[in-house]
Amino acid sequence: MSGNFSRRRFLETVSTGFGSVALAGLMNSPADAAVRALPAGAVLEHPHHQPRVKHVIFCYMSGGVSHVDTFDPKPMLKKLHGQPMPVRVERTQFNNNGNIMASPFEFAPSGECGMPVSSLFPHVATEADELAVIRSMTSPVNEHAQGNFFMHTGFPFMGHPSAGAWCTYGLGTENENLPGFVVLQSGDATPPHGGVSLFSSGYLPAQNQGSFLKADTSEAIRNIQPRGTSSEQQRRLQFAREFDEAFLARSAQDEQVEAAIHNYETAFRMQAAVPELCDISGETEATLQLYGLNSGDQQLAAYGRQCLLARRMVERGVRFIELSCLPQSRGAGQAANPWDQHGNLKGGHSDMARQVDQPIAALIKDLRSCGLLEETLIVWAGEFGRTPFSQGSDGRDHNPFGFSVWMAGGGVKGGSIYGATDELGYHVVENPATVYDLWATVLHLLGINHERLTFRYSGRDFRLTDVHGNVLTPILA
């Protein structure tokens, strides 16, 4: 082989030749020692402090959930319904602004803590004592793609690593047969505006990028099924072993080459691990009913399958799992942003809540019953909230000035509320929180100091929280 054999040529050859069977032979090779030096690809030999959780499940509600219709009740909206806003109205996405609009949903105190939860979430309401609701989240952007990038990466544009990539970069995964960062999809779910770049590894090593897994297809990951006979597989592996040992020796342990090899190794091991993960035939009927997998509502059943697989991934040591909402059956809201109701908010939010309510509550219950909730953190969030005044007659526009997200699981103070918006739910008036604070808190619970998890790129040290962020200690248990 020529000493001028380029990295690009290497990747082209492997990806079109033997990528799917992949470099498993390097597992025992001296050339792979640097890759295997840290457990499961982790960059940190030890967490910065004692971790409270090991896994994160990100339930992303793309499109912008209305906080004043879900977890932040505002009686004043009902009192002033139909009247003009008494304060200055900021520019909105469409500037088709109407008058104050009361919530079409009722709130009721839930759990022993008495937390008010909307009638949209009767199942999640039963788990109110597990929720730490942040009512004072803010975002500097007011458009879907920028909002999605900001919520995922801490920057409002593509090119930066997703939160899941940062988590696996720091801590790796506890199961080398599965990716550390998995994005679950089912049915007709599509990535939010911003596309697959929302789950990118950016400038981090490539093995940290999100891997898509279709929860309800015969082949959950494309081309994951072995091709050819066992003897053919062995011949390909032997060829790959010889090829890559030689190339690694010439590459001086180039980290991008090592990352590519790591990905191909994982792909090979996934051929057995992914089908086993997705085979839920051993789950009890009670479990299937708990998650709604037997429901006649196809969207609910599909999202329920994602939640069930999320629990199975936690059992198998996957570090970071993101779930994807499905488009609504009635077509309200865009496919990529199904919570985006600029009109018919009552119908659209009702459809979306029915899709996710039972499965998410089931996930909390199931993790608790399995003894896994204490080591798992669930994060529920969208990219921004919605206005207290109407868009048109019955919708709401985007509102980044104050909205709600919540966490549940290990390390957080269940049944707690942090921060507040004004009496109309328009602007934060108490304990403003940022996306940087959110991810600083997540990393803290994983045992990582967010200021110390950095990556040198283009002459600067980058991190998930940029140069901002404070841990939200009041919500920690």
Describe this structure in words.
The protein has helices at residues 7-17, 33-36, 75-79, 122-125, 144-153, 163-171, 230-251, 255-278, 285-291, 298-315, 345-369, 435-445, and strands spanning 55-60, 97-100, 107-110, 115-118, 131-137, 181-185, 211-214, 320-324, 376-381, 385-386, 389-391, 398-399, 403-409, 416-418, 420-421, 428-430, 455-457, 460-462. The chain is an alpha/beta fold. The chain has one domain: 3-Layer(aba) Sandwich (Alkaline Phosphatase, subunit A), CATH 3.40.720. The longest helix has 25 residues, at 345-369. It is globular. Residues 1-39 have low confidence and may be disordered.
Biggest sheet overview: 8 strands, mixed
- Report the CATH C-level class: Alpha Beta
Rounded mean pLDDT is 88
Approximate shape: globular
Strand composition percent: 15-25%
Q: How many discrete domains? A: 1
Low-confidence stretches: 1-39
Helical content band = 25-40%
List the secondary-structure elements in sequence, H or E.
Answer: HHEHEEEHEHHEEHHHHEHEEEEEEEEHEE
Computed CA radius of gyration, to the nearest angstrom: 23 Å
